[in-house]
Amino acid sequence: MSAEVERLALAVQLASFAGTSLPDDWARLLEEGLGGICLFGSNTTGDVKGLTDAIRAVAPSAVIATDEEGGDVTRLHYASGSPHLGAAALGAADDLDLTRATGAMIGTALADCGVDLDLGPVADVNSNPDNPVIGTRSFGSDPAHVARHVVAWVEGLQSAGVAACLKHFPGHGDTATDSHLALPLLPVTTDVLESRELVPFRAAVEAGAAAVMTSHIVVTALDDQLPATLSPAVLGTLRTLGFDGVIVSDALDMAGASEGRGIPEAAVLSLAAGADLLCIGPDKESGLVRDVQAAIVTAVADGRLTEERLADAARRIEKLPRGAGRPAAYDLDGQLAGARAALRFDGDLPDLTGAQLVRVETEPNIAVGAVPWGLDAPVVEAGSVFGGPVVVQARDAHRHPATLALLADLAARGTVVLVDYGWPGELPLAVPRIVTHGGSQPSYAVVEDVLRAQGWHP
Fold first, then answer.
1. The one catalytic residue among 174, 250, 276, 396
2. Are 420 and 136 in contact (CB under 8 A)?
């Protein structure tokens, strides 16, 4: 097999190592033509600009990407929580200028750190309130509303010189399974897909989004066998929307893509289906990149993957728009105003003089990770007894039976207020609730203001 195929088999990979400095073996991969590096939480707790400078010194044209959605999903602020509102809060505030400005501020922060591809925004319509992986990452449950905000966010981000990547095509919002852990099924008709899932993607493609990320879900209206990431029918549908940019796979280490077949085989199938840039997943050994490279080279030799398709993918990556943009200064007042506008109050808040603030810990989905959230407070345990009002902080309380049982027990014995930083699903019990539509530093600040106004003091 030619040296060119060997190079191309590296050029289509967006891979990730563990740690905050560039390992020697990864530097060699970059020197040989590795397409790019995706930064995850384990990479961004140190000097991010120093790390990206080190990558650029070895491979000036390599793509450097990360997931910076604002709100619950942040990599630049993994140790502290995002200073930017997330999608659901922006959707609830429903100010397109604010959404556009937030995208621009995030783009500026990324550009300042040397990142040129943002794996965002989420263009999924969160039509299932029990969705365990999208939720507050979505701008809402109405397709047209989501489309307007996705377009505004893309416009803002790309105005700062950072490429946007819509996700998760063709739509992960009506699922009840986390594709990190299993393979979700989307059993909707073509008409539903056209009138709901595809609406934001079509709008943002027309607005010039540079890239689109696939989803690891089976969309029965298009392909009842293969997940979208591996399906020529699904990825072909994306091209029929007029999209001519880079198709990025969601992380191939996720169960929805590689369970039962392995990451190298998933990479080959995804390329053959029409994907261009293969996201491998976080904290990998360099040997996995070599394994994927070898699988791609073998697939070309065996005729399962054409060299033309491989070269086409690499050309698209090379054309990914990157460059200087218009920097946007961080606007704290604007973010706080948006956070206030996003608040929803279910029921009347009681007097909270002497109230105890607590939190309920539940396992976050893998996309969110271990990012700090909420106001500082002890974790509440079942059976806890309090001498006055209790303010319980939780995320997606409606999805967690143990949280609901705890709230019911506390409400039966005293005054309880719920602060829910998750998706505002229906509660089966009547307690006053403050809904923030996601977590972020501005959201926590306005919640503290509300609680203080009701008499609470830390």
1. 250
2. no
Q: Is 250 a catalytic residue?
A: yes
DSSP annotation of 158 reads H
- SS3 of residue 180 by DSSP: coil
Which tokens in the block code for residue 303? Answer: 């005729």
Judge: domain 3-318, CATH 3.20.20.300.
yes
436's enclosing H/E stretch is: none
pTM recorded for the entire structure:
0.97
What string of DSSP letters covers 297-353? HHHHHHTSS-HHHHHHHHHHHHT------------HHHHHHHHHHH-EEES-----T
Catalytic residue among 77, 168, 180, 216: 180
Which distant-in-sequence residues (6+ apart) come within 8 Å of 292 by Cβ?
Answer: 9, 13, 263, 264, 267, 278, 280
Q: Judge residue 401's burial from the number of C-beta atoms within 10 Å of its C-beta, 0-12 exposed, 13-18 middle, 19 or more buried.
A: exposed
Unique residue bearing structure tokens 């904290």: 283
The DSSP line for 273-287 is HT--BEE--SS--HH
Q: Where in the chain is the domain with CATH 3.20.20.300?
A: 3-318
Q: Which helix (H) or strand (E) holds 20?
A: none
SS (H, E, C) 286-302: HHHHHHHHHHHHHHHHH
- Spell out the per-residue pLDDT of the chain, length 458, in tens: 689 999 999 999 999 999 999 999 999 999 999 999 999 999 999 999 999 999 999 999 999 999 999 999 999 999 999 999 999 999 999 999 999 999 999 999 999 999 999 999 999 999 999 999 999 999 999 999 999 999 999 999 999 999 999 999 999 999 887 878 888 888 999 999 999 999 999 999 999 999 999 999 999 999 999 999 999 999 999 999 999 999 999 999 999 999 999 999 999 999 999 999 999 999 999 999 999 999 999 999 999 999 999 999 999 999 999 888 999 999 999 999 999 999 999 999 999 999 999 999 999 888 999 999 999 999 998 888 898 999 999 999 999 999 999 999 999 999 999 999 999 999 999 999 999 999 999 999 999 999 999 999 99
Alpha helices in 174-306 (DSSP H): 190-192, 198-206, 232-240, 255-258, 263-273, 286-302
